[in-house]
Amino acid sequence: MDVTDFFTGEIATELLKQLVLISAKAWKYKSIADRLIILIETIQPTIHEIQYSGVELPPHRQAQIGMLAGTLEKGKKLTERVLSSRRWNMYRQFTLAKKMEKLEKTISDFMKNQILTHILADVHQHRTNADVRFDRVERSLTGLEEQLGSMKIGGGGMITDAMKIAEATMEIETSDDCEKFGVGLEMGKRKVKKMMFNAEGGLFGISGMGGVGKTTLARDLEHDNEVRCYFENRILFLTVSQSPILDELRTRIWGFLTGCESVNNVPDWNLQYNGGVKTKKLVILDDVWTRKALDSLTSNLPSCTILVVSRSKLADPNATYDVEVLREDEAISLFCLCAFGQKTIPPGFDKDLVKKVAGECKGLPLALKVTGASLKDRPEMYWQGALQRLSKGEPADETHETRLLHHMEASLADLDETARECFLDLGAFPEDRKIPVDILINMWIEVHDLDEAVAFATLVDLSHKNLLTLGKDPRLGSTYASYYDVFVTQHDVLRDLALHLSNKGKVNRRKRLLMPKREEKLPKTWGKNCDEEYNAEIVSIHTCKICVFVAGGMDDMDWSDFDMDFPKAEVLLLNFSSDKYVLPPFLSKMTRLKVLVIINNGMSPAILRDFSMFANLSKLRSLWLERVHVPELYNTTIPMKHLHKMSLILCKINNSFDQTGVDVSSIFPKLGDLTIDHCDDLVTLPSSICKMTSLNSLSITNCPRLGELPKNLSKLQALEVLRLYACPELKALPAEICELPQLKYLDISQCVSMSCLPEDIGKLKMLEKIDMRECYISGRVKSAVSLESLRHVICDKDVAFIWEEVERAVPGLKVEAAEKCFSLDWLDE
């Protein structure tokens, strides 16, 4: 760097301070000073980039910088003369005003010549040539970070924070920013601009998971011509970071909004304009981590527009743009740009291999850039190894781990211990599969000892921090809402992060034993230390098939290599794709198991073998069976004394609950929650279920052939929740339903054949809510006026009239005419 470069930056800074003082004190020069401020603020970031780049410019560029330095130096002297001039000397003031106008024109002409663009191109060329050296420096800094991670820098920031900021701003240099993100960036810009331009100030947000391109979008908005024109070039961009110095940031915002940048302390944060024309101003707060920091920086601000960029949803959802991952074609272009220096796959290179590696990044820009750069100039065999590692949730190489996974791990820094553990639990679920919310909630209740409301709040918090995506459902979060048909999804890079953090250390010592991808058999590393106990509390197995077919039928899989002992296991998830499944022998030794999830991802329900080992699961509290044949129950079936919740999804019931002489209540003495969903062979609800007097929630949903409920339903005296939605053949509710003294919630939505409600429904004194959407009931029920606890009815508009009398008779009752909602999301599975 030439000495001239340094002094140019210093002069520009001093000149800017002088102009601010002139604008505030000398009203005759105010308009010229304001225009000069805009010019200097526009040119100053480029000057600083050149100043601190560490690159020595060619002689002809140094001469151009020297010319700019001379102009700015003259401007600095001119401003000193303006500030010292006497008010009564009108001729001198007129002369100085003309000279300031000439200064403005000189600087403006200089910028129009695009000289700085050429200088910046030189700097970028030097950077490109120094890539190899930067990699060596980065490795050295990584070691330094580990040694000095707790030391303070920059007046309060941590070295680790500085490293994370540097990583977050790391970009692969290209000739055109639009090449990095394609049309996705332009679409995001249009949506954010529309939000800001349609409102007179306010708080807006850009949200998304780490590495998705939030800062890139915000920077592009900062330099967008429409945005600069709308806000008259009055834009302040601040990086807040995880360890912000809030006093300094507040002072900078104060100075930007009031023009008094020389003030060191903010005396009163209740800012007000004392006159003059209010101008539109934009404050962009990038990398904001907490609501507390945002509130501290934005409370009681004067009228302005604030754009907050965060991994969490800190602004109102309606005023927040969620940055989306790239489309496949955009992702391939960005990946190739970083791996090959061009936007297409070069001739002769294995196209399928490139697409598979890029596909592992799932459209995440940072993952595409880091992975592509790490494979640059590598042979195809190296790519094959990287693909295998990526498919297992492992880093492609050391650089990939440092730049990507460590960067993503920063998203977990503000989570409390419980929320962090809940995030890591998400690694137990298969790749690219929807996760039923009900399974997550049950896991967290049992493993982390959470109440249901706290578990749901944790789920929402993780969603707000963009660590998972919560499916949109109008019922979600409402009282008596069900979770078994609501799903969450997670980006594969976040899942890889959970696997990476969970799979550290020796296999036997891990808290979670997770299979990163679907395989034919269990990982060999699992069976190498079978003579030693496993500490895993959560075990997840994801296989293609777990049986071997031989002549004459099916033979058990050879589990002898995996005679494992899990004395601490509390959750077991078994995912497979087969029409026959042999349960693992070690299941019988999981005596502390509380949650068992068995999911068949095949096309037809699977037959389970060795179901008898359930007899040893005395502490099992939650059972989820999906797409399997429900085993028959016998008098000899060992009671599951602690089972509280059972969910049968897409199963074949096979009259399992209606075996002659079987006392179901003795087999499930404490069952409180039974769900039967999408079971197409269920024609009549087994009367034996009514013997389970411990039930407080019964859900029979999406069963297309169910036409009748048992007459002895009144035996369920503890029942509080009854869901019967989407049973199109169900024509009526039995009169006995009116004998349920504890019933609080009744859901008969989408029971399209049902034409009336029971005459004595008024007996349900505890009933609080009825959901009867798409239920064509036309007749009024006189006794309904006696539903004294009823506070919410959801129905279609054309049947709302039947509740008019009840609405007048029952204080506080809300009759909601709901929008029709059809969902076939479950078919995606």
TrEMBL record:
Boundaries of every RPW8 domain copy: 1-149
Gene Ontology MF annotations: ADP binding; ATP binding
Q: What are its GO biological-process terms?
A: defense response
One Pfam assignment: RPW8
Q: Which UniProt keywords apply?
A: ATP-binding, Leucine-rich repeat, Nucleotide-binding, Plant defense, Repeat
The similarity annotation says:
Belongs to the disease resistance NB-LRR family.
Name listed for the protein in its UniProt record: RPW8 domain-containing protein
- In its UniProt entry, the species of origin is given as Brassica campestris (Field mustard)
Upper taxonomic lineage: Eukaryota, Viridiplantae, Streptophyta, Embryophyta, Tracheophyta
